[in-house]
């Protein structure tokens, strides 16, 4: 089953006095790259969250976000009365000393000064965390389902382009025979001219002809290209992460197509090679997003 690295998942956890919303999205990446954002109370669970993401998603650029919405009237922020009174006494004393009228409430000024409000750190409830982590898994599984759907679309597109290369390969054969016949005819004409001049080194001539014909022969490239395409399609059907492997096979396919193009020496074969390259570029582009 082919999966895409692109996906999105979301889950919500309703607790007695708060609501937790979890969102996870992923894009393609060569490795696993995780970025997490969560309220401070849950920071201690960051490592376990990252491990869970790694186990379920495997690879990709992953952005994990956890949002907390308070549903109760309780607050863990309290006014520090002693500090407020001390500030008031000092400010009021200075005001009287300088003869400043009380045209602005001193309390407004005081509440903007440091340490007037203290926040008590909330302790993480492990029973509460069990409910949250279940929802984290749910969001990740939703993302994984999204990846499967995207993977089906990728599979069809990549398969059609590989099949396009396979379909183009037999079209080379008629032009290849025509090309070789013309080359042989040209060589034979040149040989007749050389024989007439009586200045032919037959051994050297034979070596040159063999070299020239081998240089033009693309039969090996055609066989390897066909095998690479078959292997590519077989690999796509594996029930594992195949993205990197498909990328390597695509490179080998490109190497054979390029060699065929450099050896072609025929306008019609070059046209077919260009069509193959076009299909392969689409394959490479889509393969980058395969898990």
Automatic annotation (TrEMBL):
<feature type="domain" description="Endoribonuclease YicC-like N-terminal">
    <location>
        <begin position="2"/>
        <end position="155"/>
    </location>
</feature>
<keyword id="KW-0378">Hydrolase</keyword>
<dbReference type="InterPro" id="IPR013551">
    <property type="entry name" value="YicC-like_C"/>
</dbReference>
<dbReference type="GO" id="GO:0016787">
    <property type="term" value="F:hydrolase activity"/>
</dbReference>
<keyword id="KW-0255">Endonuclease</keyword>
<protein>
    <recommendedName>
        <fullName>YicC family protein</fullName>
    </recommendedName>
</protein>
<keyword id="KW-0540">Nuclease</keyword>
<dbReference type="InterPro" id="IPR005229">
    <property type="entry name" value="YicC/YloC-like"/>
</dbReference>
<dbReference type="GO" id="GO:0004521">
    <property type="term" value="F:RNA endonuclease activity"/>
</dbReference>
<feature type="domain" description="Endoribonuclease YicC-like C-terminal">
    <location>
        <begin position="174"/>
        <end position="290"/>
    </location>
</feature>
<dbReference type="Pfam" id="PF08340">
    <property type="entry name" value="YicC-like_C"/>
</dbReference>
<dbReference type="InterPro" id="IPR013527">
    <property type="entry name" value="YicC-like_N"/>
</dbReference>
<comment type="similarity">
    <text>Belongs to the YicC/YloC family.</text>
</comment>
<dbReference type="Pfam" id="PF03755">
    <property type="entry name" value="YicC-like_N"/>
</dbReference>
């Amino acid at each position: 089953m082919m999966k895409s690295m692109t996906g999105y998942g979301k889950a919500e956890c309703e607790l007695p006095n708060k609501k937790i919303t979890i969102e996870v999205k992923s894009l393609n990446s060569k490795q696993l790259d995780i970025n997490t954002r969560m309220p401070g109370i849950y920071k201690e669970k960051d490592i376990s969250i990252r491990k869970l993401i790694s186990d379920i998603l495997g690879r990709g650029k992953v952005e994990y976000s956890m949002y907390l919405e308070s549903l109760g009237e309780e607050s863990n922020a309290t006014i520090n009365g002693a500090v407020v009174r001390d500030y008031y006494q000092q400010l009021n004393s200075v005001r009287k000393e300088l003869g400043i009228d009380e045209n602005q409430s001193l309390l407004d000024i005081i509440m903007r000064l440091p340490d007037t409000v203290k926040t008590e750190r909330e302790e993480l409830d492990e029973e509460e965390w069990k409910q949250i982590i279940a929802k984290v898994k749910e969001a990740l599984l939703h993302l994984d389902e999204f990846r499967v759907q995207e993977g089906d679309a990728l599979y069809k597109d990549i398969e059609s382009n590989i099949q396009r290369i396979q379909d183009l390969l037999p079209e080379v054969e008629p032009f290849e025979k025509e090309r070789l016949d013309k080359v042989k005819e040209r060589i034979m004409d040149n040989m007749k001219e050389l024989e007439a001049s009586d200045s032919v080194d037959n051994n050297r001539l034979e070596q040159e002809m063999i070299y020239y014909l081998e240089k033009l022969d693309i039969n090996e490239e055609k066989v390897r290209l066909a095998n690479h395409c078959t292997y590519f399609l077989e690999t796509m059907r594996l029930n594992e992460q195949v993205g990197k492997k498909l990328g390597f096979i695509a490179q080998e396919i490109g190497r054979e197509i390029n060699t065929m193009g450099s050896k072609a020496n025929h306008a019609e074969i070059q046209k077919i090679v260009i069509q193959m390259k076009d299909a392969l570029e689409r394959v490479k582009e889509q393969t980058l997003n395969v898990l």
